[in-house]
């Protein structure tokens, strides 16, 4: 390389290294990662409780079926949760990341609507 080209090359590399053009500091073409947390810390999503609400009209068997099909509960556990909701006004059907909780709520609403039962399902931060 000619003297002039070598000079320009070195100049460009300096600019690159100190981020003088306002970009991130980098090592040639490689972006230098400035880690602020240990590598082992991974992001855990905020979780949401999906709650079933009691009402006077939805049949107990329908709620048990919902708990088995939508929330993958065994029959005994589904019955326990349904009775808890019946006696206490509400109860947790499951705990999920936001989008999954949202889909469960929509599925329960849709199944209840199709069967013309007033069963309600809501989500709240766990
Ligand atoms: N209370 C209802 C009944 O007596 C049963 C029921 C349980 C309804 C749980 C809704 O989320 C519910 N038929």
Label the overall shape. Answer: elongated
From the N-terminal CA to the C-terminal CA, the straight-line distance is: 64 Å
By DSSP (H or I, 4+ residues per run), the number of helices equals 4
Number of strand segments? 5
Note the main sheet: 3 strands, antiparallel
Order of helices and strands: HEEEHHEHE
Indicate the radius of gyration in whole angstroms: 28 Å
In helices, the fraction of residues equals 40-55%
Q: What are the low-pLDDT stretches, counting only 5+ consecutive residues below 50?
A: 1-27
Q: Ligands in the structure?
A: L-tyrosinamide
Walkthrough of the structure:
This protein has 126 residues and is an alpha+beta fold. The strands form two sheets. The chain has a three-stranded antiparallel beta sheet. The protein has a two-stranded antiparallel ribbon with strand order 1-2. The radius of gyration is 28 Å and the shape is elongated. The N terminus is likely disordered. The structure holds L-tyrosinamide. The site of L-tyrosinamide has 13 residues, from strand 3, helix 2 and helix 3.
Short recap of the structure:
The chain is built from 4 helices and 5 strands; from the N terminus they run αβββααβαβ. The chain is an alpha+beta fold.
Defining traits:
126 residues, alpha+beta, three-stranded antiparallel sheet, two-stranded antiparallel ribbon, 4 helices, disordered N terminus, binds L-tyrosinamide
